[in-house]
Amino acid sequence: MARPTTSFRCTECGWSSIKWVGRCGECQQWGTVVDTSEPTVRVAAVRPSTEARSITEIGAEAVAHWPSGIAEFDRVLGGGIVPGAAILLSGEPGVGKSTLLLEVASRAASEGQRVLYVSAEESVSQVRLRAERTRALHPELYLAAETDLATILGQIDQVQPQLVIVDSVQTVSSSLTDGLAGGPSQVREVASTLIRVSKDRNLPVLLVGHVTKDGTIAGPRLLEHLVDVVLQFEGDRQTALRFVRAHKNRFGPTDEVGCFEMTGDGIAEVADPSGLFLSRARTPTSGTCVTIAVEGRRALPVEVQALIVKTQAPQPRRVVNGVEGSRVAMLLAVLERRAGLPLSGFDVYVSTVGGIRLLEPGADLAIALAVAGAYRDKAFPVTQAAVGEISLAGEIRPVASAKQRAAEARRLGFATLIDSQAVHLREALRLAFAGSTVEKVDVPDF
């Protein structure tokens, strides 16, 4: 008779081991490896109460959204909050998650919805002070400072709200589950219980989630699979601009972006952020170029600035802000090899205006033109913009949403848009420098 073997398996990723370990060797999660050596129980088939139907026989029902009162927040959600939806909002500490959700709670209460705001990190007096500062006071907004899951469920039964906000899911614990608050087992139990209540009562629930050092949502990955919507609240704490992006949305698109601005009175939505990412210089400046970026479905003009400084160091510095460092390094190599710019002896600094991050390849041409303008100390006309992806061969490739970018450029008054019609980087440089000014350095033409 074969002796039964003991096996352990991770509940998150399925990694197996012959002995117990505290940390999974595959997904690096703590406390997820459990003993699976118990005998397997086969599940018997049960006659279903309703038979499966052809998809063509099932009618399509429109998802009903009710507006939260914040247009930019509703834009990201796909039109508003869906009854029974579980929404997860994550972001770095201090970026303004609690301020945003308190504003959402106040606007929803003003629309006639009874809202329960559960704060597991602050006292009710602290939340009340912030609500008074941001003018978010409303009699239909109820506050509760609870960290026990059972007590929160009791508050829901007593208040009978139409919207529940829990700040945050990592600080709530259940007495029926072992482990500390924030652990994988506790987060899984708390989230699954709140989502089950949300579905049973057709009650929308907004959960706040912490993030790790690398920017991912803390806790098990199961948390993102359980919820209906995953929102990311982004922004530099040194600047006032904030973005809300949808990484997952079962009720709408995932390519929308909401723009907000942190003020002394709280958070304000920015309906038209076209001028936030442009400098206010009235005269053309060398080393600057404007590109038309697409954030979600919205085209935005973004100014890219570059500065180069002669250096004697064996390894010149490459400092970037708002753009990818690897992308800039590739563009510098293309400029030196395909356009003949000797940049290996210069320190190069590239940054965007307004704190926005440009991650799409459509900003390649603007970055290259800004660096070239800084090298030749030439300023481009303020009515000129550039959009295009640059290959290693120096070719300019077309980008997505080209018509939308061109229409936005015309609307904002950009008379010249250099794009993939230039075909090659050298031709784009000739077109860009054709109307440039302030030449101070004599270098060969492109």
Automatic annotation (TrEMBL):
Residue window of motif RadA KNRFG motif: 248-252
Pfam family, one: AAA_25
Keyword Electron transport among record annotations: no
SMART domains: AAA (SM00382)
Signal sequence segment: none
Region Lon-protease-like: start-end pairs: 347-446
Residue ranges constituting the RecA family profile domain according to the UniProt record: 62-211
Sequence positions that bind ATP: 91-98
InterPro entries hit by this protein: AAA+_ATPase, DNA_repair_RadA, P-loop_NTPase, RecA_ATP-bd, Ribosomal_Su5_D2-typ_SF, Ribsml_uS5_D2-typ_fold_subgr, Rubredoxin_2
Alphabetical keyword list: ATP-binding, DNA damage, DNA repair, DNA-binding, Hydrolase, Metal-binding, Nucleotide-binding, Stress response, Zinc, Zinc-finger
Entry text on domains: The middle region has homology to RecA with ATPase motifs including the RadA KNRFG motif, while the C-terminus is homologous to Lon protease.
Stored NCBIfam families: sms
Family stated for the protein in its record: Belongs to the RecA family. RadA subfamily.
Entry protein name: DNA repair protein RadA
